[in-house]
Design brief:
alpha/beta; disordered N terminus; globular; Arc Repressor Mutant, subunit A; four-stranded mixed beta sheet; disordered C terminus; 43% helix; 8 strands; 297 residues
C-alpha cells in the first residue's frame, strides 16, 4: 500500500470527533450565532482548549468559521469565482493521467476493470473518525478509490457502498492500511513537500474529465454547474455535469462540494447539504484568513 502510506499529522485523530461535533453544532445553529462557550461544551472541552484545538486544525477560529456559513457568503463566493475556471483550467487538462502539479494525483482503472466491475482487484477499506463525521475510505494497491461519510441518512454502510460500485472486487476490512491517508487528507496545512495522495479512479471518459476539472478548482472557490458545463464545452449541459459530479467516488479529495447552484443554494451533495456547507465555509474562511488576521472568538 505504498501510495497511501503517508505520514500521520499533528492532530490526534481522536480529536476529530470533538471537531466533528463542534462543526455539526455550528452548522445547525449558525443563524443563532452561538458563543464559544456553547460550542466548546458541545465538543466536551473548556473554551480555551477548544479554541486552541479548532484553530490548530482549521487555521481559523470557530468564530471566523461561523461567519462563512451563510447563504450570502455562498452567493459572494460565486461572484468572486466568476473567472476561476479560466484561471485554473487554462493550465491545461491533460486527460486521464497524473496531475503532477497537484497534491492529489490520479490514474484511471483500465476499461477492462470498468466493464468487469473491478474483478480481480482487492480493495482495502475501513471507517475512521474525521472532522466531518465518520469517514469510510477504500484503496487498491494503486491508490484511494473511494472516500465518503457515514450518517443516519446513509443506511447502506461502507461495505455496501463498495459492493454497489465494484461488485466483483475483493473487499478486505483493513483500517490500519487506510487510516494514515485519512489523517493526511484532513490535515489542513501546507502540503508543499508532502507525499501526494494517489487516487485510482473508475469512471467513464466524461466522468474522468469532469473530476479532473474539479481537482483544479482552488480551495475557497466555487463554480456553478452551468459554468462548468460551458467551460468543458459539453453539449449535454448542466444536467450531465451534475450526474458526473454526483458520481464522484472520492469525496473531499475530488472537491465536488465546490460546485453549487447559481442562486448560491447549498444542495446536491450525497453526504448532506449541512456537510457541504461546512466544507465550503471552512475553505472560504481559511482562504481569507491567510490574507488577513483571524477574527478573535
Amino acid at each position: 500500500m505504498n501510495h497511501i502510506d503517508v505520514r500521520m499529522q499533528s492532530i490526534d485523530t481522536r480529536d476529530y470527533e470533538r471537531i466533528a461535533a463542534a462543526i455539526a453544532f455550528l452548522v445547525a445553529h449558525h443563524t443563532d450565532q452561538p458563543s464559544l462557550k456553547d460550542v466548546a461544551a458541545e465538543a466536551g472541552l473548556s473554551p480555551y482548549h477548544f479554541q486552541r484545538l479548532f484553530t490548530r486544525w482549521a487555521g481559523i477560529s470557530p468564530k471566523r468559521f461561523l461567519q462563512f456559513l451563510t447563504l450570502e457568503h455562498a452567493k459572494r463566493a460565486l461572484e468572486d469565482s466568476a473567472s476561476v475556471l479560466d484561471a485554473s483550467l487554462d493550465a491545461g487538462l491533460s486527460g486521464p493521467g497524473r496531475l503532477h502539479d497537484l497534491f492529489v494525483t490520479y490514474e484511471a482503472m483500465t476499461p477492462g476493470d470498468y466493464k468487469q466491475g473491478a474483478a480481480g482487484l482487492t480493495i482495502r477499506y475501513g471507517v475512521v473518525p474525521s472532522p466531518f463525521g465518520p469517514c469510510f475510505i477504500g484503496a487498491t494497491d494503486l491508490g484511494i478509490c473511494a472516500l465518503g461519510f457515514l450518517s443516519e441518512r446513509e443506511p447502506l454502510g461502507a461495505k455496501a457502498f463498495f459492493r454497489q460500485r465494484w461488485p466483483k472486487a475483493r473487499l478486505v476490512h483493513d483500517v490500519a492500511a487506510v487510516a494514515p491517508a485519512v489523517a493526511s487528507a484532513f490535515a489542513l496545512e501546507d502540503h508543499a513537500g508532502a507525499p501526494s495522495l494517489h487516487l485510482h479512479l473508475m469512471g467513464t471518459p466524461f466522468q474522468l474529465k469532469v473530476w479532473e476539472a474539479l481537482l483544479r478548482i482552488p480551495p475557497g472557490s466555487v463554480v456553478s454547474y452551468e459554468d462548468l458545463a460551458v467551460r468543458l464545452s459539453t453539449p449535454r449541459g448542466a444536467r450531465a455535469i451534475g450526474g458526473a459530479v454526483g458520481a464522484n467516488p472520492v469525496s473531499y479529495l475530488i472537491p465536488c462540494h465546490r460546485v453549487i447552484r447559481k442562486a448560491g443554494v447549498i444542495t446536491g451533495y450525497a453526504w448532506g447539504p449541512e456537510r457541504k456547507r461546512a466544507l465550503l465555509a471552512l475553505e472560504g474562511a481559511r482562504r481569507d484568513g491567510l490574507a488577513s488576521p483571524d477574527a478573535p472568538a
